[in-house]
Every structure is written in C-alpha cells, then in structure tokens.
Amino acid sequence: MKNFYNSLAEKDRRRYAGIEATKLGRGGISYICTIFECDYSGVSRGQKELTSKLDKNDKRQRVE
After folding, report:
1. Is 12 among the domain residues?
2. Does 61 reside within a domain?
3. Whether 36 contacts 5, CB under 8 Å
4. How many CA atoms lie within 13 A of 18 on its CB side?
5. Which helix (H) or strand (E) holds 14?
6. Pick from 62, 7, 63, 59: which is nearest to 36 by CA?
7. Other CB atoms closer than 10 Å to residue 27's CB: what's the count?
C-alpha cells in the first residue's frame, strides 16, 4: 500500500490518502498520516478535492 502511494504524483497521493482515510472513518486521517508519513492537511485537502467538482478539468501535472 505504501509502495503504491509513493509511486503516485502529488495530487494523486493526496486523493488516495483521502480515500483511504474516509474509508476508515473517525481517526482515519491521523492513522493514514502515520502509515504514509504525510501531513494531516494534505490528506484533508485530498478529501475536499474528491468531494468538490472544481478540479475535473485540471489536466496539468507536475513533473518530478
């Protein structure tokens, strides 16, 4: 699970972490932050991106 997370682009990482945290329910964000070693606000932002419809046409992707 962590290897898959690390293979994703930044935006996809946020969203994947948001999905997993949502599936876990209460305390999910904190748990996912521990597992993926990521920031709480990033996971929270990923959850918000998933529920909003504003980002559907964003085709830009950062190259690392």
Report:
1. yes
2. no
3. yes
4. 18
5. helix 10-24
6. 7
7. 9
pLDDT reported for residue 25: 95
Q: How far apart are CA 16 and CA 4, in angstroms?
A: 10
**What integer pLDDT is reported at residue 56 of this predicted model?**
60
For 22-56, the three-class secondary structure string (H helix, E strand, C coil) is HHHCCCHHHHHHHHHCCCHHHHHHHHHHHHCCCCC
Q: Across the 64 residues of the chain, what is the mean pLDDT of every consecutive 10-residue run?
A: 93 95 96 96 94 67 65
Q: How many domains does the chain have?
A: 1
Q: Alpha-carbon distance 50 to 32, whole Å?
A: 16
One-letter amino acid for residue 50 of the chain: L
Q: By residue range, what is the domain housing residue 46?
A: 2-51
CA–CA separation, 56 and 30 (whole Å): 27
